[in-house]
Design goal:
The chain is an alpha+beta fold. Among the domains are: about 60 residues; about 70 residues, no CATH class; about 60 residues. The protein is about 40% helix and about 10% strand. It has ten helices and seven strands. The strands form two sheets. Strands 4, 5, 6 and 7 form a four-stranded antiparallel beta sheet that branches. It starts with 15 loop residues before the first helix and ends with a helix.
Amino acid sequence: MNHKSGSQNNSTPLSASIKAIIKNTAKKLTGYKRRTFEAEITNEFYSGNARKAERELNWGRATISQGMNELSSGFECIGNSKMCGNKKTEEKLPCIEQDIREIVEPNCQVDPQFKNTLVYTRITAKAVREELINRGYSDNELPTSRTIHNMLNRMGYSLKKVEKTRPLKKIKEVNKIFDNVHDANSTSDNDPETLRISIDSKATVKIGELSRGGKSRDKESPKALDHDTNFDSILKPFGILDVLTGLLTIIFGNSSETSDFIVDALLIWWHANKHLY
């Protein structure tokens, strides 16, 4: 229903820029303020014609008419929004919350480290729904598994894999073990007839025109292959460190990290460095 206003009849059409400003201003308002703003614009520029304002500004004429009624009466219309929308499943089915607790509780475990109050469970929302059907609920009256998932979260159950209690990584004998190791190392370092070395193998290195993220000072950057599937060979680095002197030797082999490879690397290192000892 259109309402006529006694405001001045402005027959001059609004420019596109003015319309954009008016619409952007309306978007920043909500509820009563937006309705009355749209009504005032309609009265001022469209002679109170809600249908014309709808056509020109893409506003809803029902909203404009309500705003006009609010302007003329001086009263704000308050909607009963709390009663709108779908109710929670707990309100539709009052007993479902207790039934879910009876299903989930036997499969629950608290946080092993007591860092929070959440309860972890192995049972999934789909399994909870199937058990509710076994207890007499019909498939039509029950919500989806996703809704049950949300219900479990609201009830304080976290649907994730149960983490086993972590054992203590440090036992009471650890300090004694390390003290013994340190004593053995000190004894070895002070014995001229003993040599202490540290050995370790590293990640395999592919040889070829491959990019490893390096940089070059050449005028033109070297070209490398897009993928590392085409390579010439594979080398296995094996490091040997003299702990006392800090002398590091790296030996490359083209075989896997087998016991023979380790022994051969130690022999090569010894023959090259035995004159130092």
